[in-house]
Amino acid sequence: PLVSMKEMLEKGKENGYAVGQFNLNNMEYAQAILQAAEEEKSPVILGVSEGAGKYMDGFKVVVSMVKALMEEYGTTVPVAIHLDHGSSFEACAKAIQAGFTSVMIDASSQPLDDNIQLTSKVVELAHIHGVSVEAELGRVGGQEDDIIVEDAEAAYAIPAECERLVNETNVDCFAPALGSVHGPYKGEPNLGFDRMEEVMNLTNIPLVLHGGTGIPTKDIKRAISLGSAKINVNTESQIAQANKVREILNDKPDLYDPRKYLGPSRDAIKETVIGKMREFGSSKQA
Ligand code: G3H
Ligand code: ZN
């Protein structure tokens, strides 16, 4: 069923696993991720950025497609459709109106008081509709869609500010930027685990780890043990898909039927997602 993230994340935090957010880029992603979740018996979060939403011709198209696939597959596991890095109240409202079950309001580029005010406004609307809300403090580095954060601008969240934001907004989960990066890492990631522990103790709600691509398993496990109950993955699925398409088209330069290269690359996405679900410990939890 389509549900908000609230319950699945609280269960994950309680039982020491994380639910993956896997981003959608087109229909093959929705197919691959929903199939993976059902096979693994894992709860799942389908992440949709504003850019990806536009690419798929709008949030309503995304919701209709996901609902139709779930009906077709007879999906039994909990599925959330979540706006990833929502940039404004209007974007969140649009997603909620279209049937998203969860939204992120990312006001992390704004001063703390403005972030709190905007996040509260989104929470107020979302909770009326049973929709969960994620907020962010500090700045995740790297690039996702049109959101580019230079190394110098990437910032670690300050624990006391995290406590204030969570207490004053009533968000359902919270993403403190602690050194993770969107897209591939340059060298080993350097996550601020001490601060993560502090933020966990001060906020006591499920934490979110962005930039899940390229984080070593030991760091994933440590983040989960420090309250991270949601881990976002996008780039790794994209790389798996692109590699497969490249391999097939290189092998067979005369091939033109999209089903013959997008089909196998869909399986590559699915394999990637299954691997993450096992690593995050969410398999067999639905
Ligand atoms: O919000 C989406 C994620 O944080 C994805 O990060 O593309 O590095 O896996 P990633
Ligand atoms: Zn992110």
Question: How does this structure look, described?
Answer:
The protein is of the alpha/beta class and 286 residues long. The protein has one domain: TIM Barrel (Alpha-Beta Barrel), CATH 3.20.20. Helix content is 50%, strand content 18%. It contains 11 helices and 11 strands. It has helices at residues 6-15, 27-40, 50-55, 59-73, 89-98, 112-128, 159-169, 193-203, 217-225, 235-251, 258-280; strands at residues 19-23, 44-49, 79-86, 102-105, 132-137, 141-144, 147-149, 173-176, 181-182, 207-209, 228-233. The strands form 2 sheets. An 8-stranded parallel beta sheet has the order 8-5-4-3-2-1-11-10. The chain has a 3-stranded mixed beta sheet with strand order 7-6-9, with no helix packed on it. It is globular, with a radius of gyration of 18 Å. It starts with 5 loop residues before the first helix and ends in a 6-residue tail after the last helix. The structure holds glyceraldehyde-3-phosphate and zinc ion. Residues 85, 140, 144, 182, 210, 232 line the site of zinc ion (ZN). The site of glyceraldehyde-3-phosphate has 16 residues, from strand 3, strand 11 and helix 10.
